[in-house]
Amino acid sequence: LRCGLALSLSLGGGCSGAMATMLTLMNQDDGARRVDIIGLECGEQSPAHALSALGSTTFQEPISRQVAETHLVEDRRAERERRGHVKWSKEPVVPDVGGLGWRTKTGHLLKNQSYYPQVSKNLWDHPTLAGVNTWKEWHGPRMRADAEIMERLDRFDEEMDQWEAKKTFVNTTRVQTLDRFYGQKNQRSQLQSSSSWAPHRHARREVHSSYETFDGTLDEKPSKVLKKVLTEKVLKNDREAIRQITTRMQNEETWKQVFKQMEQERRSDLRADLQQRQAHTDRLMQLAGQPVRTHLPPGQVHKSMNNCSTRTEELAKPRRASLPKDVTARTDFRGLVHADNEHALEALFPGAGHELSVEFRARATASSQPGWPPPPAAETPRVVTGKGSREAKLKKEASLTTLSIPASSQRIEKLGTRNNPEQLKQHSKAQFLPVVAPPPPDQSVTLLDEDWSPAATMRDRRKVTGDFARTSHCSSPMSPAVESLPPPRRSTVYPMMAPTSPSSPEPCRSLLRRSSGSTAGCTLGSSASAPSLLSSVRSESSSGRQQPAGKLPAQIKTASVCEELDAFEAQARTSSVARISNFFGTPRAKGQFK
Questions:
Q1: pTM for this structure?
Q2: Which of 143, 267, 309, 402 is the most buried (most CB within 10 A)?
Q3: 503: Cβ–Cβ under 8 A, 6 or more apart, which residues?
Q4: DSSP class per residue in 516-535
Q5: Rounded CA gap, 204 and 217, in Å?
Q6: How many whole angstroms separate alpha carbon 17 and alpha carbon 557?
Q7: How far apart are CA 390 and CA 358, in angstroms?
């Protein structure tokens, strides 16, 4: 305005009419507009001319508006869950609040409070600044489905799912740790009271390099490898080889028995011949008038006179031919599957392979007994598999020794799975030998170790059942995000069911225990070194008082017992009693203990 004022003064030479008009316009508009005279004098076109070009009609919106209260909203998440999407159509109307921005009569966008949003949001996605087509195809259907509330509810549900997944992870990990710790505690108590246990099985080649052969490593092979090597034809030929070797050995033993009988008959013939000669000699001596020696009557066996013991006579007798308890233990059967690899047969036929080997060897031993006619050949035992096997019966009938863990029922209910004995029982191997571990199961039937991290649990909530367990990777419940789940891992160990050991004797915690008026557990015997101790115990017993288990009588003191022992040793030094010695000491001729 100062430039225009200076210019008008220089051109007009102090025109009072122009000055009066300019001051009037400035007072009306407070200097915010420029009038035509000033614009023309400055050489610029005034924006006021644009108002005359807008026409005489008022601006009309191409879409109708309605009251926001009548704009009903419904939750469409159930439809999205059922169909996978939400059906939509172009929105024909726009609400008066939250829709397109209001415009003036001349068509300009009204810059009110909704024009300047306080939320940091991309302005291209703001419905106030959008056009009519964008509202019909994007903002309108989005507001009709109430997408913002759906997004907030989805975010809230996701946060709750994350929290539940974290709780499931923590509870599952804690309960599995408690199950493992208390299982180890139970196992240690069993090992403490058991006289023997089955250690981990090691390969034979770890003992000596001579077992680095094909048949020496069969016991350490899995079942899927044994099925390719020990086929039905191989096992049949192996049993036939044992039968042929047994037949040959039975024939040899029979001829040995025959030779022994021939030797006994020859010995009997020689003795009979000698007796006949003796009788002929005795007859000649009798005819010659010589005295005749008396002999045993015919039919009786001569018995030599000796002064040896009965045990010496038993040792002097010839050793009887002993028959082996297991004929397959001989070197002729080395390298045969049924004789050397019963562990591999157990892995090949779970629950019946060991019985197959033992029973067939027992039949082979029975068929190798000498005699005529020879015994029948060993028959092939029937292999019982499936529900009738040893493991299947044990899993069904056996009861487990378990320990309770310190966990509440509310915490146990919200778990993924557990490692308790009841669950491991269905996937364990049964111990059939007292000091030998059973062969491991096939990897395809071992229990999988699932990933219970929050991210994996959120992708597949169907696994949170409390006792979820599977052995195959394909048995997981299918879900849209199953391909993004981490695969479960195979364990390097396998569970085993073993018979519980009998209760071990409780250690002596007290010197005297009473039960119904009689001593039980660790009691005191008669001792010359502690007469007062014994007398006090007897006095209590005679008086009828009973002392609680685990506590000594008040009269018995450790110091008094030690003093009596010291007095006894001092008396032994001064008296003529022999010194205290062990049972292997040299006996003394003088000195007698009274």
A1: 0.58
A2: 143
A3: 193
A4: TTEE-SS-----TT-HHHHH
A5: 7
A6: 134
A7: 14
